[in-house]
Structures are given as C-alpha cells and as structure tokens.
Description:
Elements: E1 2-3, E2 5-10, E3 19-23, H1 38-41, E4 48-49, H2 50-59, E5 66-70, H3 80-89, E6 93-98, H4 103-111, E7 117-121, H5 129-133, H6 141-153, E8 156-163, H7 170-179, E9 185-190, H8 207-220, E10 225-227
Parallel strand pairs: 3-5, 5-6, 6-7, 7-8, 8-9, 9-10
Antiparallel strand pairs: 1-4, 2-3
Helix pairs in contact: 4-6, 7-8
Amino acid sequence: MEFYGLQKLTLLDFPRKIACTLFTGGCNLRCPFCHNAELISARDEAQYSEEDVLTFLSSRKGILDGVCVTGGEPLLHRDLPEFLKKVKALGFAVKIDTNGCVPQRLQEILAAGLVDYVAMDLKNRFEKYPETVGIPDFDPTPVQKTMEILSQWGGEYEFRTTVVKEFHTKEDLLTVADLAKDAPHFALQSFRDSPRVLRAGLHSWDERELKNAWAEVRRILPNAELRGI
C-alpha cells in the first residue's frame, strides 16, 4: 500500500488510544463538504510507502497503542487486509474510517480479526444521499449493507454525521439518528468551512440550533456526542 499522509500522534482519532493516523488515496464519493478533497483522486505521488509506515510503526512500539487508517476511502484498496495483518503483528490496535460503500472488504477484515474499531460516516437520510455525496445516481444499498454488517459484528463502532446547513434539516438528523439507534456510538459533527472543501460557500449550523437538534437526537440516542463546536 501507499499513503498520502501520516499524522504521527493523535489523542482524538481513536477512542481511548494513543495513536497515529494514516491517509490513503482515492475515494468513490464527491461530498461537497469533504475536508480531504486532495485525496479523492490521489493524482499526486504518494508520500509514504508501506515499508516507510511499517518502519515508523516498529519504532513506536510501546509508545503508540493504535493505528487509524482513513482516507479517501481505505476499503477501496485490495491490499488493505494484508497491510493490516502486518500492523496487527506489530501489536497495534486498528481503527478504520469508512464511508460504508465497500461492505465486502469490511466483512473480510472483520472476520479476520484485523480491526478493533470502525467509524462510518452516515452522510444523511438515504433519500438524500445522492445530493449529499455528490453522485446524482448514487445507490445507498452498500451503505445499508455495511450498517447491517456492523450491527452483527459485536465489536466497537460508531456512526457519525457531519452537519451542513445546505444538506441537513433537523428532520434529516432525527431520521439519521433513528437509522443509527442500535449503534453503540453516534456523533453529530459540526461542519467547518475551509479552502480545501470541494464546494465553496457551504455553512455550518448556528451553534444554538445545533445544540437544540442534538438535544432532540439524544431522545433517540441518549449517548450521542456533539463534536467540533
């Protein structure tokens, strides 16, 4: 595998772990609010080889607890399972971030015991997925399959929704919360604009509005978190 970024230390990305974060290239979605837009096509040369990353991880044994693999969409890479075997052999816990579009590969790595935590972006209610992910004819069936796989897994996972004024209403968030009601963890994340997002002119919710919506979401999911404010 090749990687387009390495954050050598994070206390936020992997719950209860001191971790590093690896960024893969390529994504099948075109979410207008994506903060890693430069990774979508991954046209630039990769910054780190698999050997580079494994050498770094070997030097951090006993210092780091875990490795987060994000993107882009990590599960698009057919060599991901073999890479994760090497990471696990070094003694690290593994967290995968995914958009939920590659259920077969997720099933493979879960069945092989290669992942300890999964974070899946639940973009919106299914009816609004096409506009939210920037793919007019997008079929959310794979996302629904991934949710089913995670619900049957028995491991630790979360769903998370980035809230953008142009794409989400309070009713959308309540519908999403109902879709995620059986998950052990759920989070609303406030959108933050930056020059890196795909579409200029998008907006976050007013903090008070978001907190009010969060309060209603917690009637469905009492442990729901609010992030990014």
